Amino acid sequence: MMKYVxxxxxxxxxxxxxxxxxxSGSFLAISLGVYEETIQRLHCFKNHFKENLFYFAPFILGxxxxxxxxxxxxxxLYNQYYVYTMMLFLGLLLGTxxxxxxxxxxxxxxxxxxxxxxxxxxxxxxxxxxxxxxxxGAVLDYCFVFTLGFVEVVTTMIPGISSTATYMMLGSYxxxxxxxxxxxxxxxxxxxxxxxxxxxxxxxxxxxxxxxFKNSTSFWDIIYAFLFYALYFLLLxxxxxxxxxxxxxxxxxxILGYRIGLLFSEE
Length: 267
Description:
There is one protein chain. The chain is built from twelve helices and no strands. It is an all-alpha fold. The chain has one domain (about 1-265). Helix 3 crosses helix 10 and helix 4 (about 50-80) packs antiparallel against helix 5. The protein is globular, with a radius of gyration of 18 Å. About 35% of the residues are buried.
């Protein structure tokens, strides 16, 4: 029973990670020790159907509940206390790193490769930026929502890639928050999002299983590169507002977030 309760609460944490800008839900899954098992169970779901069903039920319930409730809370905090909210989440992300480094230590060549990959990611993301997305019901709008569903599964399953950072780059972060804070009022739009997610899942699960279990060293180098980018992204988006913010409160929130991240990752 306690295992299922634990899975539910870990799902809550990962769900919050899905709506926090710059934080990777799958990276939190690694820190919480459920990522590898989740990928393995997804890859051979039919082979142990009942056991896998009992595993995923509380886990997914926690994620979905957290996303729906967290989207409403994050939408408020994002608009009212942006800098302080981002600094708390920066600390949370930093707090998950020590356990990952212990489990997957970096050698010098890994650090170099991860840093070079990070630079490529920064250059690519800086070159591509989209205007604020406003859904108006056109055919292209539904196609874009379908694409966002595909983006969601990629950023969900590949550790280190923040879905919210990607949504910000695509100009659709606020749209996603509103969509999931009121899912039953936008069922048709949500349907296209889920359709894109399911198609992406079917395509990605086999690719990811191969990379994760057959070529893990290069895989972890890429994960660290995206982690560096997530930290860079968070700082880049708030540093210009530091001068008008309470620096002591920022420091306290980073430390608080760090301690919370450590607590969750060590469970």
